[in-house]
Design goal:
This protein is mainly alpha-helical and 290 residues long. It contains 11 helices and 2 strands, in the order H-H-E-E-H-H-H-H-H-H-H-H-H. Helix 7 runs antiparallel to helix 8 and helix 8 packs across helix 11.
Length: 290
């Protein structure tokens, strides 16, 4: 029923047939839209806030990816008793991780760690004149390596508990001695069978205890890694540095495609460090629901 829609449909047919007819479709000013939805990012045109689902998702995603709107929230469910034993090591590893990740982003001109780790780089700094697809592909190859390296560092030496191993060995020796004695006394009798049954139960209990110990140690260390990345005791200073950097550059409009790379670097707040062991963090979180 809309005259404008009918005219646009006719122009569309003309445009499709252009390769054959050579007749161009001419769009009059009357048919051109006066306003554009904000998710189209028409910077030089008048835009409006779209109420459609795509508009809502666009604004939420943009707010979440804006470094000025990042506010670190610590989850109290991630506290595990005994995490204190791993704080010092966690701080050292965090510094190492942040340095590696920062180096990758500097090398390839990527500012947002979320874009790098997710594999969806939207924009690059102007420091790269090469094909952006090539740069993105090479950058994506670095992220899994970083994840793999620090996951290995997390588990390195974590379960090398000499005392626990010695205790298990002593218990195993005692069980073997009892089993030998049972064989000397006629292990085929009821007495030998009872001892064999007890030994089997003891072995299962040992496995259960060792598994619980392994999980507990992993949980404590993962909780420490999470704490140094998200707790206010460790992030407050970083937030203040970021706020000062933003205050110094507030009067200037920085964009991903500008040359003010150093100023944007000072605003970085890296949060992905503990998520190299995201499976363990998920396990800790599940405890709260259980």
């Amino acid at each position: 029923e809309s005259e404008e829609c009918i005219q646009l449909a006719e122009l569309h047919s003309i445009a499709v047939d252009f390769p054959k007819t050579g007749r161009p479709a001419k769009l009059s000013n009357k048919l051109q839209p006066a306003y554009f939805p904000d998710f189209m990012e028409k910077k030089r045109r008048v835009s409006y806030e779209s109420k459609r689902a795509i508009g809502v998702m666009y604004r939420e995603a943009k707010m979440a990816s804006d470094p000025e709107d990042v506010h670190v929230k610590f989850d109290p469910d991630m506290v595990v008793e005994g995490y204190q034993d791993y704080i010092e090591e966690a701080l050292a590893m965090q510094t190492f991780y942040n340095s590696r990740l920062d180096g990758i982003m500097n090398q390839f001109g990527i500012y947002d760690e979320a874009q790098l780790l997710s594999g969806h780089v939207v924009k690059f700094m102007k420091i790269h004149k090469r094909n952006h697809y090539e740069v993105a592909h090479r950058a994506m190859e670095q992220a899994p390596t970083l994840h793999h390296d620090f996951r290995n560092l997390f588990f390195e030496g974590l379960h090398d508990d000499g005392g626990a191993k010695e205790g298990v060995q002593q218990q195993q020796q005692q069980q073997n001695t009892e089993r030998d004695e049972g064989d000397d006394d006629g292990g085929r009798g009821e007495r030998g069978e009872a001892r064999a049954s007890n030994n089997s139960l003891d072995d299962k209990e040992d496995e259960i205890i060792k598994e619980r110990q392994r999980v507990a140690v992993e949980d404590r260390k993962a909780a420490a890694w999470y704490r140094v990345a998200y707790h206010p005791d460790y992030t407050k200073e970083k937030e203040e540095e970021k706020a000062k950097a933003m205050a110094r550059t507030k009067a200037m409009d920085y964009d991903y495609d500008d040359d003010n790379y150093g100023s944007r670097r000072r605003r970085r707040l890296i949060l992905s460090f503990p998520w190299v062991v995201g499976d363990i963090l998920t396990r800790i979180k599940n405890y709260a629901f259980e």
